[in-house]
Specification:
- With 96 residues, the protein is α+β, with helices and mostly antiparallel strands.
- The chain has a domain of 63 residues.
- The protein has a two-stranded antiparallel sheet with strand order 1-2. The chain has a two-stranded antiparallel ribbon with strand order 3-4.
- A hairpin with a 2-residue loop joins strand 1 and strand 2.
- It is rod-shaped and about 95 Å long.
């Protein structure tokens, strides 16, 4: 179990940003890469007013959700030289 400060350090964000994420997650407003995400955490004390603890696997899960997949480079076709213009069906030049 990690403290919010330790979890934030693993994520590379500030503790206040992590608290914001947890608050948004509780309300269902936390969105990563277009998908709603729920972050599971434990809060001790009477009526949940105590210290927050986050499992290390949950921090890793959020990290994986933030990962950007690498798209393979697409091969480009060489441009084809066109002697005609699209939509023009008459020969070009001065009228005879």
């Amino acid at each position: 179990m990690l403290t919010p400060r330790q979890a934030a350090a693993r994520r590379g964000v500030t503790a206040t940003t992590l608290y914001d994420w947890l608050g948004r997650s509780r309300r269902g407003l936390f969105v990563l890469r277009g998908r709603p995400v729920t972050v599971e955490f434990f809060q001790t004390g009477a009526r949940g007013q105590g210290r927050i603890r986050i499992a290390a696997r949950e921090v890793e899960r959020v990290r994986e959700l933030m990962r950007v997949p690498v798209d393979p480079a697409r091969t480009r076709r060489l441009p084809v030289r066109q002697d005609r213009f699209p939509g023009i069906t008459v020969p070009l030049g001065r009228p005879a």
